[in-house]
Structure formats: C-alpha cells, structure tokens
Amino acid sequence: MALSWGIFLAVTTWFASVPAQAEESVVKRSDCKINVYKNKKWESRNQLPFSVGQSVKVKPIPGRDSQVYVWVGDAYAAVPKSCLGIKEEPPEDAPSGTSGATAAPMPDLKKKSMYLSVSYLSWSERIRLEEAPGIVSLLNSNQVGLGLGGGLRFRAGRRGQIDLGSQVLITSSQVGPSAANLLAGSANYVSKDSGTFGILARPGFFFFPGSESLAVGFSIPLIYRVANWPNPNSTARFLEKAAFRYGAQLDMQLRRDSWSIGTRLGFVQSLLGLAWDLNLSKSL
To answer: What is the pTM (predicted TM-score) of this model?
Structure first.
C-alpha cells in the first residue's frame, strides 16, 4: 500500500505541473487595470506585465464576457478583452451586478460528459464461515485489484458536478482469522490469492472550490462481488461467497484538460472495513 501511495504522489506532482490548455492572444495595450487572484484573494493592478504585441495564453471566464484569464507568471489575472484585442460579446446569462472580478475563478464545466476510468483499489470486509451446523465464525477478507469502466458527469450549479460511475472489478482476495478468533483459538482458516469478480456502481458529487483543476467530494460505492474461496473441508462452507456491499468515501481529483487523477478513502460494510483507490480517467 505504501508503494501505491508513493506512485500516486509522484504522478500527482507531474500531473499538477502540466499547464492547462489555453488559447493564444496578443497584447494590444499594457496600461490596463487588471485583477490578480493570489493567495486566495484579488489584488488590483494598473499595469499588464507584458509588452504590446506580445503573445499570451488566455482562458475564458464563465459568466464574464468582457474579461479573460491570463497567466501573469505566478497567478491568474482577470484582464479586459479590449486590452488583448478580443472582441467583447454581450453577456447571455451573467448575473446582474457582477462587474469586475470579485470571487475565485469559476470552473468551466460541461453540462454533460462521458469518461473512461481505471482504478487500483482495495477494501476489507467481514465474512462468515459455517464450520458445522449452528457454528459460525467471522473471518477477515481483503480484496486488492483493478476496476475498469467509465461513467457520466452532469453539471450541478456553478461549482458542482454529479458523477455516476461504474466498473467491472477483477481482484485477488486474502482471507484470514479475525483478532477475536485468534484469541479464542478457533477458525484459523487462511486463503491467499483467491480470485474475486464483481461489479461496482459509484454515484457521487464533486465540488470545485476554485477552477476546474481541483475537485473534492464524496461517493457511495455499491459493490456486488463473487469470491472463489475454497471451503476448508467437506463440512465447512462460506455463507457469503456472493454478496452485496456498500459504503461511503471522500474523493479528491486533479484535472487537466480531458484527464483526471484522483484518490478515494472511506469504508465498506462497516467503519472497520477500510476502502481506498487510486484512479485515472479520460473524458470523451
């Protein structure tokens, strides 16, 4: 697990350093009043830090048709289109009384989008072993493997997004005695690398505190899995080789263009059933 988180942190660092896709524009005037978003607040400046004729990268500001975002070296600045020679368009659905930049950058979210996803995931659960008629012991089962699938995302308000994902699960399962059984000296059954297959549905919600590059939220994993645990002997049998599980997780994603990388942490079945994953997705 430590190796998995190390890989995730390395990939996240690279992912965050990739600049988001932007359009090219040319500076027409440098003596413009701009608003720079830095240290979670806006600063007003009277000079654009570029010379006339210089090419710059711009991104649209949702709901503000008279301004665009320009990267000024260490922060984003809201710059009038007239300073860049961009024709201003009349606003369509901008709220009244919103002149000038007074809030954090708004995410540029599509109304609906599809995506493909792959996850490296793990969850733990308690399972029941019937050693003899009327004698049932609890065991621990830990699943680790891959999830392959996709989903749909729907815009919800100005900073929200509903995420409906699903995946096919291919995992390896390890079964061992619980702490209570070890102390009691019963049900010391151990099974390693038993195949488990399943289907995962994951409705969730994301919130964008700033631009579309960072999303935080929660999701509800709904898992139906079938395990191939061998029975210990002719009289003992597992009562839940096929079972439905559900839980709750906190989500975080970093997004760049059509790609996103993220992690989830929570529980399945009970608060003791740790569930986590590292995920990568590509919008279509």
So the answer is: 0.63
